[in-house]
Amino acid sequence: MLKLQPLFSISSNRFNKNMPGAQWPLIKGRRTCITLLLLICVADLINFSSAWMPDVRPDLQTKQDKILAKIVGNTTDYFKILDHDDKTILVGARDVIYNISINGLRENNRIEWSSSAADRELCALKGKRESDCHNYIRVFARLPNDMIMVCGTNSYKPRCRNYEPVVDEVHPNAPITYAVVDDVEAQGKCPYSPVHNSTYAYADGSLYSATVADFSGGDPLIYRDRENLRTEQYDLKQLNQPDFVGAIERNGYVMFFFREIAMEFMNFGKTIYSRVGRVCKNDRGGRNTLSKTWTSFLKARLNCSVPGDYPFYFDEIQAISPVIESGPNALVYAIFTTSVNAIPGSAVCAFNIDDIMEAFEGRFRSQKDSQSQWLPVQENQVPEPRPGQCVPDSRTLSSIAVNFVKNHPLMESSVPSVFGRPLLKKVHLLHRLTSIAVDPQVQALNGDFHDVIYAGTDDGKITKFINIPTASSGATYDDESDIKTVFISELQVLPLGIPVREMVVSSKSNTLLVVSDGTIVTVPLHHCAHIVDCASCLSLQDPNCAWDQQTHECKSLSFSNHKFGTKSFLQSLNSTKKAAKSLCPKSSNRGTVIADGPVLNFGAPIDNNVDPQINTQHNPEEELARKHVYTNVASVNGIPTIGNDINSPGIEIPTAVGGDFLNVFNDENKITLQSVDPHDLMNSVNDPLQSTAIGEEQKLQLAGKSFYWGFGALALALVFIIGMVVGLHVSKRNCKPPSIHSSHRNQFNANPTFGLKHGKDINLLMNTNHYCHPGKPSLDLEKDRSHECKNSTENLEKELPCKTSTLTKVKRTYI
């Protein structure tokens, strides 16, 4: 039987020594190519593995936003916003509540309330840390007659106090002081831990709280102090390990937003759903044994998902905004994330109050037993009046209606998000969204109103965006194709790794107040003054900013004396960024760069006595520099001062407004007009002592880009060279060149440098001596064979002086 030798052998002799010499270069080339391809693929995989990018990119990014004012405390202060207006803000902290002015973060007043030594000692004996055994103020409410109610954790023994103002008749201008009127326990009103996710709402003289009622946190409840109404204790159908994020009052109801373990999914596994629950403000409980139980508590799922045949859900709600009156609609904006062990993703969804109310008017959902599926309840099984609706006196309800609400709190329909999809989606490995604030109904230049949304992240960034209708003026909130998200900016406000807990928008003072566990800062709402050319101003698509064609500046509409609809300003929100840039007149390409020093005109200082528009020489080099300035830079990173004249026109000098608190100003704003990676900006270093002109700055930027391209090309060349070297080394190590004896020709006339020319030249009788044991030296045997091969016909009739094998017979027969 004919046996074929494999090209590669598993034995220690890697290759067959009898392999034809012509096969060796081919195999050697294949192995080299395979090695190179593998190395290149590995290099590409390494590059792609580090190329996770956000799904949307902002037009404005800074390394550090301009801090107007700052308060720095300890991370264990656990700052919490309790109340605010346009001028002041109340912040709860450890053993104190602050009244702070938003303009400059100056402390106006404070109320100190510490835990007693006995309460702190008892807290320590229960195994809590010393930092937890303090009184953290978590609840605040304004009572009639200028009284206030304050509740704190009080070293894991919550208490509430009522204060009344004390007027000093001798010193009427002195700060108002408060005296304690009442001091009571606050079980069910205030959380035990400062980090517990609790919320509350004060409506119609009653406190509605959502927290826990025990030291261990195992008894969650929704509670009202009047009538002491609460959800059913240890009833997983009503509350199953919830985390509360917010509460609002609307249309005779109080609504609570929270996330919890989904009971309807327990038969398939364990997952978390976001919910909205509601109770009637006039609920007075049931009769007899149900007198302390809600008769109106219902809940429904919040659906924040990417639509499709298989929707992608953002299941865990993190924060909500107050109710925003957006035209005829009342909206609640909310932050959602994926679970901690899933793909890191965040989204912002909006919910219409009318959609929430409609969900509670739908069918109920129930489970017959623990092994059954959750199914809709038939309409004929629902008692009258409909459970969950507000009635004049809930104590008149039948026990059947009250028990139905108790056993069927979940609605079948979920609450859809506005437009049927998230308003913003972010997939980022390094941060998630944590908080939200809304500047409602900001009027654009064309008279339209937009909600400007600010979303904070867990690494100190603030994301700003708006949503623009793209359909006709008759578009409704039901058509998901009628919306376009405009990602305006992403600014680094807090140090990396510091999460943004809460935010407050103050439109009158043009300030965004940002709160973390131990820091409070204020930053501008917009950065119009940092934009220096028309194209960049329009492509930013910020409703706060418009291009002034008379002064050639990007100005804030809130501070400009303009008339909506006038032609002296340019703004384009409903078009694409490219179309917005095309609206700029060619003559508006002149401008200046506002930096941390005098105004620079393409590397040369401007004479204060000369019009900057006239002090411009038109030459090709200057035009090239102008292109670089207007295309790549807004507030140039690290532009130095050429002179010390701080009175130069057009320069905006920051001033401290922080009073006695820490007022830290950071004028190192690096605002770029291109979508660049935020990590590249974070790694840039600004040296304020360096003195170069803007032309040199542009050269450095171009050199930096060339360096990165050159570095990439060099890395690719190194990978190619390394692959070649490794391939040759492996080939030489594992493969031996063919010996002269492995040729099919006679050794005396064979040419090892050439391959086989034709099949007829092959002498099939060669190499048959593997089965022979010649009795004379091998040299004589080879001479005899050479003599015999002179006449192939005669040689076939002769037999070798050895035993002939089957393979030899086949070869002879073939020839």
TrEMBL record:
Domain Sema span(s) in chain numbering: 52-525
Record's subcellular location: Membrane
Single Gene Ontology MF annotation: chemorepellent activity
Cited CDD domains: Sema_1A (cd11237)
The keyword Coiled coil is assigned to this record: no
Membrane-spanning intervals of the chain: 707-730
Keywords tagged on the record: Differentiation, Disulfide bond, Glycoprotein, Membrane, Neurogenesis, Transmembrane, Transmembrane helix
GO BP of this protein: axon guidance; positive regulation of cell migration; semaphorin-plexin signaling pathway
GO cellular component: plasma membrane
Keyword presence, Ribosomal protein: no
Pfam families: PSI, Sema
Entry protein name: Semaphorin-1A-like
